[in-house]
Design a protein that fits this description.
single chain; about 220 residues; 8 helices; about 30% helix; about 20% strand; globular
Amino acid sequence: MNIKIAPSILSADFGKLNQEIGSVEQYVDLLHVDVMDGHFVPNITIGAPVVRCIETKLPLDLHLMIEHPENFIEDFVKAATEKGRSKKDVSITVHQEVCKDLRKVLEQIHSFGVKAAVSINPATPLKMIEGVLDDVDMVLVMGVNPGFGGQKFIENALEKIAALRKMKPDLDIEVDGGINAETGKRCVETGANILVAGSYIFGAKDRKQAIVSLR
């Protein structure tokens, strides 16, 4: 299975965001955008206005770590596609933990013509999303408790990845948090095919080499 690399702009210099993205975009496959609201996770990052300003031809992987994501999906779709990006190159991920009716939210995302994905935190059992696996384009397994970059990888992510791959052999399985050359290799061997890395890429002296080491 082809391994895709998604640098997380959470670890980029927001004062020169597009320059930071430009330094890696020719070596990666998609751009991971962490949206945090200070409620679901203990951090605040960016909203739709910043997404609108992102200049890249890469597909956008929008990870909504926010409460009531259904209230903001349309705004993020508009922001991600305003500069001509195709809707098929936009993915929106919501967390199981904040969706009272997860299937309904996923249907809402799909209704805008973009890809829909679901994420689960380290403490959330896989059974919580088994019922929607046929309704998603991707599952994002968190390798850390969401909120901040640079955390240590939590091992139980590997068990979830392996179980998911067994259940859905053709599913895109993304892993985010604590990813470096070592943990990335283990995730891929277990069944993940999309690796999100923030500080490991943007904090590297040689960003190209850091990306190469993940493949």
